[in-house]
Amino acid sequence: MNETITIRMTDLTSIDIQKIGIEQRIIVSVWSFHRTYQFKLVFSWITAFLLSNVSGHSQRDTSANWSVVISVQGGFIIPHHESVNHLIQGHSKGAHVYVCRNTDGRKYWHHAYNFPECGIDFTAIHSGNTVQLGSLYSSSYLVNLPLNGNGQLSDLKHEGNNRFCHWIGLGVGLGYSTQRWDLETNHQAPMLGSRINAAISLQYSVRLASFKFGEFRAGLRVLHFSNGGFQLPNLGANNAGLFLSYASSRQVYRKHVTPVTPSIEKYIVSVGLLAGLKEILPPNGQKYAVSVLSFLGEKRVSYKSSFGVGADVLFDASSVAIMERRNGFNPEVGRAIQVGGVLSYSLFFDRLSLKMQQGIYLRDNFHLNTALYHRFGLRYNIARGIFAQLSLKTHFAKADYGEIGIGYTWRR
Hints:
It contains three helices and 16 strands. By secondary structure, it is mainly beta. The protein has helices at 22-60, 108-112, 317-327, and strands at 66-77, 92-102, 117-126, 135-146, 166-177, 196-211, 214-226, 237-248, 267-279, 287-300, 305-316, 337-349, 352-363, 372-383, 386-395, 398-411.
């Protein structure tokens, strides 16, 4: 008679392997492997899935222009604050895989930006300090913009093209750190308070040589990890490195007919409501709500860019708690309201725009930070007049909080 044996997965680590049968040994081995290599397996499976889809698309649609760029990298963790100098114990090393395609000219912004590459980038970096900083993994959407005046230079032709070509790349996504700050086990590493973080990458690359089978590139990349002040401490992890890449070849079938130039408004006026959560010292404490009512007027100077001025009305509930701790009594909530003036610059990619703003506090009763603040974010036009925004407010290199919100735009 077959005997049914139930083993709880949480108890597997305490089982004596010598006292169980072959079936149970197999289960224990599989579970042990799963626990040890769980993250690596997920990363590998995602990469394999994307590569298989790329291969499938290439067979079905030769105009897709898919390519894979594989890079190895060596560098270092940037000691951007004196409190992290002791954490830099060796050079970092890693790799990234960029599954991308050339834009094909069906939209006007493809032509305006010289036919950039767009795709998913996977990065793995060993920090050089396994015990305190661990390793950094990220997955992000990366846009690689050609800096040449003629986008045709970025083509990978089968006959080879050794003309000079260079790119500037920007990636935004999510990152995972194998180590984080912990009061008991890792209290000397105040870079990251959480394992899950936003990942932002900025890179510059150049073509070294091109052949029938592909091309070689080299460049410099900076990868930034931060949770936007949601979980302290949050000094952020910054890795800089030089990389060498191999980009697989593809036959390019590009639409050479430029779409009709879209009508461009002269002025843009928008109002948005943004909100977020932040933490204050000591770590692992209460999360406080923040909100921003934002007004912005912009002058469109070209299809790609605009300059603007605006104003922010900000409320940060954590400032009330800080002042209460300092003075021993609760200040009036209205005194926590701040007013800021803003200078703005935007880059437009069809419905998506990249916002870079410099702000100055015009009303700030508590003076808990510097007089200047900055905002970097993405705004996407969901429907006519309605947009969604994801942004980060900082004081120079110190993240204050992340923002998410919605708003309305008038164009003229």
